[in-house]
Amino acid sequence: MHADPGCGTGGREIALDPAVVRAEVLRRITPVGRRERLAFSSSLGRVLAEPAAGLAAGRRIGPLELGCLAGAGVAEVTVFGRPRVAILCTGDELRPVGEVLEPGQIYDSNRYLLLGLLARCGVDPVDRGRVPDVADTLREALRSAAASADAVLTTGGVSAGDADLVCAALVDCGEMIVRRVAARPGRPMAFGRIDGSWVFSLAGKPAGVLSGFLGIVGDALRRLGGELPPAPLPRLPMELAEPLTKRHARTEFVQGIMFQHEGRWRVRPSRIEGGRLCSMSAANCYIVLAPEQRDVAAGQPVLVQPYGDRV
């Protein structure tokens, strides 16, 4: 079902196309107001808050931009402050790396996946630790994180089980704007606000965390850091090397492996499960299947979205 994404949902479950959610999130978010004056030589990776040397405000300073500033004799630049992003990983089953696992427990791998992804977004991550599946504790953790950060990023607890309490806590503490995304993986997802802090709640499985971050959250955090609204990742036509099965009328992001064969680029699904991070690392792209698509035979063209430098 599609709905007006500009309205708060009040906790109701509304599934929106991921492109619609991304556009709505970017429309709402404005850069943090903090600004800093830096020596140009210390500005690599920062976002210009004022034009300099012909470079527009909102441009992230990379190696070429750094050379441009030096070539124009610009000694100092004004940049946006780095957004503070708090990470909360929810779940009674999570344990820190180094502990011996008991039956039913898993290591908190999503935390490190997110820390790595955030490092590429130009933000200051704030690790708020693990939160158990207790409603009062979760509400307090959300309020505390929102009070200390520009954005809060949670994993787990957004599905439909008895221990999935994040969405209810978000409604209690603030406003829920989007509930669920019409995509797989990463369908369980919420976007909202607590006071002045944005909240992004992602699924518990690593595959859902990655797809939600690459498709929506990462661009939102870049925008929060002052970057001009980034273009979506490109999607390229390629020949499918192995058949794919699709049953549901929603966008599906199938992790794939691009490779060259007889001078042409082809792609095959990587056949991995949502919780297997080590096997996920072999993938280098998504095979993007539109809602109206069903089974796709080998040899047919599909759209491929490379990870690029975002993973």
Describe, in plain words, how this protein is organized in 3D.
With 311 residues, the chain is an alpha/beta fold. It has helices at 18-28, 63-71, 109-118, 135-148, 166-173, 206-224, 277-280; strands at residues 35-39, 76-80, 84-90, 94-95, 106-107, 124-131, 151-155, 175-179, 183-184, 190-194, 197-202, 236-240, 251-261, 264-269, 285-289, 301-306. The chain has three domains: 18-29 and 82-224, Molybdenum Cofactor Biosythetic Enzyme, Chain A (3-Layer(aba) Sandwich), CATH 3.40.980.10; 35-80, Molybdopterin biosynthesis moea protein, domain 2 (Alpha-Beta Complex), CATH 3.90.105.10; 236-306, Beta-clip. Helix content is 24%, strand content 27%. Strand 13 (251-261) and strand 14 form a beta hairpin. Mean pLDDT is 89; it is low at 1-12.
